[in-house]
Amino acid sequence: MISDLSQTFTQAFRDLRPLAPIPAFEVRFYRFANINNTIRLRRGRILVRLSDLLEGAPGPVLYAILHILIAKLYRKPIAAEHATRYRKFTGSRAMAEKTHLIRQMRGRKRIEGAQGAHYNLDQIFDRLNQRFFHGLMARPQMTWSGTRALRSLGHYDPAHNTIVVSRVFDRAGVPQYAIEYLVYHEMLHLRHPVRLRGSRRQVHPPEFQKEEKLFPQLAEARQFLKHLGSLE
């Protein structure tokens, strides 16, 4: 398999940089907790790590992955056919189930707890559950992030059934409607899982967007979050 990977890497490199000499390189599978693939240039040597979830993937898929990585390294355009092939393979139901299982087995989730200095996430979830879902939604683990993250204000992790909220919201001056909207948004991710449409992932399908509009202070909450960071 290593020799096959080396041959595939060599072909992808030549196709992208036909006039450049092929540098020393190493390509191998690595035990990531997700479908992560990395490429780095260290002292003239290219190091590629592919998720071991991709072992056994068809040759064209591995070529597509290496094409994408090499193109990113050298800032070359990524061929649409390879991007589509990779998305279709990794977005398939079989790969999604495999990834979900591996994340549960290997991934570690740091749980800080639902009780903050100003807000209790369990209580917020329960209020929203009664208000919008007739109290029928099972509560996942609710936790504050370890830091006041601004890059990701909140996210739902299906592998660990956990809603994480940035601790930046746990302070005086944050309006209640803002944190309620953030938790409600992540509850909708729990209700409407990411699905594949063609070769593209639908993170916010139409049903999600329709229910999101039911939040009465949607405009005010979005305006408040706009100045803080991103919402997943």
Describe this structure in words.
The protein has a three-stranded mixed sheet with strand order 1-3-2. A three-stranded mixed sheet has the order 4-6-5, covered by helices on one side. The chain has a two-stranded antiparallel ribbon with strand order 7-8. Helix content is about 45%, strand content about 15%. It is elongated, with a radius of gyration of 21 Å. Helix 1 (about 1-15) crosses helix 2, helix 2 packs across helix 3 (about 80-90) and helix 6 packs across helix 8 (about 220-225). A hairpin with a 4-residue loop joins strand 5 (about 155) and strand 6. The longest helix has 16 residues, at about 175-190. It has helices at about 1-15, 60-75, 80-90, 95-105, 120-135, 175-190, 205-210, 220-225, and strands at about 25-30, 35-40, 45-50, 140-145, 155, 160-165, 195, 200. With about 230 residues, it is of the alpha/beta class. The model has no long low-confidence stretch (mean pLDDT about 85). The chain contains eight helices and eight strands; from the N terminus they run H-E-E-E-H-H-H-H-E-E-E-H-E-E-H-H.
Q: Report the structural category.
A: alpha/beta
Instruction: Give me the strand/helix succession.
Output: HEEEHHHHEEEHEEHH
Helix content, binned percent: 40-55%
Mean pLDDT: 84
Labels describing this entry:
three-stranded mixed sheet, 8 helices, alpha/beta, elongated, 232 residues
Indicate the topology.
Blueprint: H1 2-16, E1 25-30, E2 37-42, E3 45-51, H2 59-73, H3 80-90, H4 93-106, H5 121-133, E4 141-144, E5 154-157, E6 162-165, H6 176-191, E7 195-197, E8 200-202, H7 206-212, H8 218-226
Parallel strand pairs: 1-3, 4-6
Antiparallel strand pairs: 2-3, 5-6, 7-8
Helix pairs in contact: 1-2, 2-3, 5-6, 6-8
